[in-house]
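Quality-control log, excerpt.
Job 1 of 2 completed; input and output follow.
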Amino acid sequence: MAASINLSFEEMWEKIIACDRKYDGLFFTAVKTTKIYCRPSCRSRKPKKVNVEFYLDINEVEAAGFRPCKRCQPEVEHSPHIEIVRNTIAFLVNHYKQNVTLSDIAGQVGLSPFYLERLFKQETSETPRAYLEKIRIDKAAHLLNYTDLTNLEICYEAGFQSPSNFYKVFRSLKNCSPSEYRKELQHEVD
């Protein structure tokens, strides 16, 4: 059962530019000019945006005639638990707006909450809760960059239940407040 995610082209593009390992295995970057596909975290030189297609399934990308990158080896599974981790991450990405508990996630992937948390932490070095917060902050950063929503609107749109928690988590992950982050983005454009 392949897990699918709800990310826009722009969001996936941001993930590959940032070489974000959190999304490895959830989608693949295919370059039309070279006919090569990679993981989102691949450190190879980034292609032109117009030459990129995204695929959610490795079989689809290979059926479309793309071959795996020799540097990031997207066709190689690095762990026997990768499918469980991938399904957990897909669930988190698709349900980031909701108040998700560890029991909800565990029920979705068919494991006990304790075992899921232990296995997930072993594979990703983070708890599912910390991973979910990073996904929410990624979404908030995207919204700060591409919308005119207020910080409070973004807080709730990104799935946070309280503004104080949103500001605390944002500052801990981005080393600035949401307002400072937006101002910094505007200075980069000017």
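Job 2 of 2 completed; input and output follow.
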Amino acid sequence: MLDLVDGLPLHPLVVHAVVVLLPLAVLGTLAVVAVPRLRPFTLLVALVATTAAVLLPVASESGEALEERVGEPGVHAELGEQLVVIGIALAVVLWLLTLLRRGGPGPLTAVVAALAVVTALLVGVQVYRVGESGARATWGDVAGTTQPAEIEDEDD
């Protein structure tokens, strides 16, 4: 079902949304925790993280469909499954932080804010790991072994 869209694999299409939204959620989390005047944007960051969290299982399922077409992607699939869990955890922690901040500051809010930072950093590292392994699975050594195409001079 989550295989092709207009003849193109769905996986890279969804992944592009995830690799934009998750780093935005990571940076947003760090900002709303570290900069007091940005705290009102916690809800917006939670919405961004939630959108990414909704897309993560779609990326995973479409990756499995792509795997059936092109073969095993190696460690990329395992790292992607881990990212699904960590990405959803970030969204949950951000919603909890949003709710706690509506009630005012307190020790529990500080603990959840610290947990949000740790989770965001884990997500950031895992996004890199998944992306790097996906690029290697897709491109292998192609980029390192091929010569750049020569650009023809239009004046010739």
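Post-run check on job 2. The helical segments are 10-34, 42-70, 75-102, 107-139, 142-145.
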